[in-house]
Amino acid sequence: MKSLSFSKPVVLSHGIFLLCCALSLWSCNFTNTENTLTSKVNVFLGTSGDHGQMSPSASSPFNMLSIGPQTYAHNHTGYDYYAKRFEGFTHTHLEGVGCTGSGGNILIKPIVNNDFQTHLLKSKQHASPGYYQVSFKNGISAAMSVNHNVGLEKYTFPIEANEKGLFIDLSFALSNRFISEEHTIEKNIISGWIDTYSTCHRGVYRIYYAMRLSDFSELEILNDHQYYVSLPQNTVNTIVEIGFSSVNAEYAKSKLVSTNLETVQKASNQEWNSLLSHVKVQGEEDRENLFYSLLYRGLQSPYKISEDDGTYAAIDGSIQNADFEVYNGWAIWDNYREQLPMLSLLYPNKFKDISKSIANLYKYGKKDWATKHEPSPTVRTEHALVVLLDAYEKKYPLDFLPIKDSIIAEVNRLNFGSPDKALESSYDLFAASKIMETLNDDELARTYWEKSLDYKEYWEKDFADLTKDDVDRMQARGLYQGTIWQYRWFVPYDISGLIELIGSEDQFIKDLDQFFEEGNYNHANQPDLQVPGLYNATKQPWKTQKLFRNILLDTVIQNYFNDNSKGIAPYIGRIYKNEPRAYLRTMDDDAGTMSSWFVMRSIGISPANIGTPIYYLTAPIFEKVSIDYPNGVKFEIEVKNYDKDHFYIKSATLNGKALNQNWLRHEDILNGGKLIIETSKTPNTSWGTENMFITNY
């Protein structure tokens, strides 16, 4: 494929191209019926400022193609709910990540009067899963929908407008991350590839695309990367159809099947509804709506990048073939804690291939950040070993032998250079030790195990003494994103050992009490995300029950944001709100991480430790929960004597038998059954204190 280069503008003329059945169907305005779960999803949740960094773009589950608005000003996904001025529409959006975001490829802007500065000032907008529509004050409107790696965009112009057209910028990307592109033009199809720096300018991803235009009279090349598509004077609607592939432009072209907007929207809606309905909740309407709006966010990435025949692009740039669905688009340092465990529990058929895809990274040169040959936008892959161990312990089929050498190489690169990295790398050593056990490599397993226990020395050095004046200061002693207080709990695989380091269970509880009472917890970021659940590993699990309910639904006080230490005016209010400014300031959703934290705890289940197939129990915020599994298996949770304001567990039964422990195994849930939890206004200080589960290394 050769890059186009011109010394002066060139005009390509041809007849008007019509998509099959388009004229009769472009005016449709398909909306969800009230009995679908997609009607409960608010896609505008978390789309303003640094309160989630999400986008209302038209998307389908696990799809790297998403089409949505580019506003000025914008957040990390290119959009802000309260912005009025639109710059156009782009086709990639990695949701909720930092470093000013990722994606924003291929800008299309509808214009009139041959004016590339045409003002697109929002009049009204509407969106639902798989669909986005907006109208502007100048009479232009746009609607778009996406199914897997194919999308349709409909641009509507006032009949009286002069010189209607589309401005197309193939070099557009968020934060000036565009690198290069090559494309060809064949009649009404522009196709090629685009290279873009990924999140934080770390690594490069390449997308292949094919874009089919309809109803145009001329295609003017403005420069190497920009085009002006002029439309006939009597045109009201014009269509852009686009296909994506990780492999090549021919696969992208094959996605262009001359369908219509209504068909794509219905298919996308059905796919979303099918996935959302795997988990049914029954309770207050506002809670249901919040739940499904956040579950929706947990089902957008990673992206399926393999074609139907198994072909995909590996992270070394080679083209490979797999007998499973291959995924890419990782933010594992963030979402290994919540989103990936959620998928492992609620969507086992999807997670089976996602876990294989993570293991598959090791064959082709996995790095902690994006490589130079990613097939989609991606962020980071630290703690992939923890995810793989977690999958293995949950009986997902993984073969570690072919990637053993790569795992060893990654372990040899682990960083112990700062207090937080020392604890995090020790966690990876724990996972590597367990993986080597599965390979019967007792020597390496013992070596990694012994080295992982060095966390105790790091902990004694930096985290034992809380009298120093920097323990509540963000990034003290070289910490990346957190404080000494917040990181001192990061030994999730050996809470028993951590209790011993602190001195006793009573002192452990006392320190936890101080941590929360003094407002040291930071829900705006991930380093201490597991800490509210730590009372579950003590004789006082009811304190976790209260903390979870507070964070899920009630007013809290938060002193920390990701740009300050304690001392700036605190936030007082709810964290999870079903509105554009949904989260705490500076609280990114991080590819479904924070949404999934809510989803799991709202149904009464939370991981004890990623790498251990155990879940702690707490009171759901719903009266009933049902999880559908393959072959008709269901796991049901019912709250006895339900009261929306009660959250302490009085008693529980599992399949009719009294359950006095506050935890279940992964297989207990996937095998199906019925869990009945009786709640009360006051804590039962004896429930959950028998047969306690405490991670012990």
TrEMBL record:
The keyword Signal appears for this protein: yes
Single annotated GO MF: peptide-N4-(N-acetyl-beta-glucosaminyl)asparagine amidase activity
Key word Calcium present: yes
Coiled coil: none
UniProt KW keywords: Calcium, Hydrolase, Signal
SUBUNIT field: Monomer.
Name listed for the protein in its UniProt record: Glycoside hydrolase family 92 protein
Lineage, opening ranks: Bacteria, Pseudomonadati, Bacteroidota, Flavobacteriia, Flavobacteriales
